[in-house]
Amino acid sequence: MRLRTVYLDADTPSAIQSVISRESSLFGEDVDRAVRKIFDQVKSFGESALLEYTRRFDAPNLESIRVTAEEIEAANVPAKVADAIEVAHVRIRRFHEEQLRVATSGYDRDPVWSWSFEEENGSRIGQRLIPIRRVGVYVPGGKASYPSSVLMNCVPALVAGVESLAVCCPPGGDGRLPDAVLYCCKLLGVDEVYKLGGAQAIAAMALGVGMRRVDKVIGPGNAYVNAAKRMVWGLVGLDSYAGPSEACIVADEGAHPAWVAADLLTQLEHSADTVGFVLCTSEERLQEIQAEVLSQVEAAERRGLLEAALRD
């Protein structure tokens, strides 16, 4: 397999444009039409529609969309994975605690963060920062397990003081959620978890079907998830439309080839329609990075998907 190389100082503008241009997979009439139908069914038939769609797309024999406390408690992962999750948890929490400290510097807290001052006429003006009461977290699944999405979405919510979290994640064909995802929920004390994916999960959280309605929906997803998020804009708060990944890594002659390759492939493994670029100032270093990318792809569990992403 060969990786395409374009030289910014030598190739034609059209050659460069052909590499960086692509049609977004986040938007499309067919996707919007399918998602609208899902919303209509969820509005009309409630939780039975959620179960029906989950059986159709994910787990044919699923009996309930709710993850039990016993399933969460039983979640176990290999020691190496547990260590990695716990290290990530500590680092993510430390970052957001510091972020909150800096953002609220000079604020009083009684019981929420606030500041105010009194004008000459006796009126008082200020600001209050009030944590969102209830947040729905979408954790992608299907092709892979993404415990990082649990940590990176739930930890800042907990640090901010969000009272209630609901996590939705598509189950596997056996009706189970990935152990790593449930392990993260257990670690964080998140006990409201649902076996729901795709547009139906967004509909459930935003409309309050099969669960209490949330005030904000966060988390990445595919084109159907993002179309669903667009449809609930204004009904609930949203974070962003985080869809197929794009990575652009700038590497000079001091870059570590293995690290650059790992950063690139970490994004490309999400799906075959992800896109990755490496901008390198050294021909020699670029060749080393290319060799490292191919080596890591060959040893990867998801080799076929990575090769498809690199090829396209």
What does this protein look like?
With 312 residues, the chain is of the alpha/beta class. It folds into two domains: 29-90 and 131-238, 3-Layer(aba) Sandwich (Rossmann fold); 244-311, Nitrogenase molybdenum iron protein domain (Rossmann fold, 3-Layer(aba) Sandwich), CATH 3.40.50.1980. The protein is built from twelve helices and ten strands. It has helices at 13-20, 29-45, 47-57, 69-74, 79-103, 147-160, 179-188, 198-207, 223-231, 257-268, 283-299, 303-311; strands at residues 108-109, 113-118, 124-129, 134-138, 164-169, 193-195, 216-218, 237-238, 246-251, 275-280. Strands 6-5-4-7-8 form a five-stranded parallel beta sheet, with helices on both faces. Strand 2 (113-118) and strand 3 (124-129) form a beta hairpin. The protein starts with 12 loop residues before the first helix and ends with a helix. The mean pLDDT is 91.
Name the CATH architecture of the largest domain. 3-Layer(aba) Sandwich
By DSSP, the count of extended strands is 10
The structural domain count equals 2
What is the residue-mean pLDDT, rounded to a whole number? 91
Query: What is the alpha-carbon Rg in Å?
Result: 22 Å
Helical coverage, percent range: 40-55%
The largest sheet has its strands arranged as: 6-5-4-7-8
Largest pleated sheet: 5 strands, parallel
CATH evolutionary superfamily of the largest domain: Nitrogenase molybdenum iron protein domain
**CATH fold field value of the largest domain:** Rossmann fold
Count up the helices. Answer: 12
Unreliable sequence segments: none
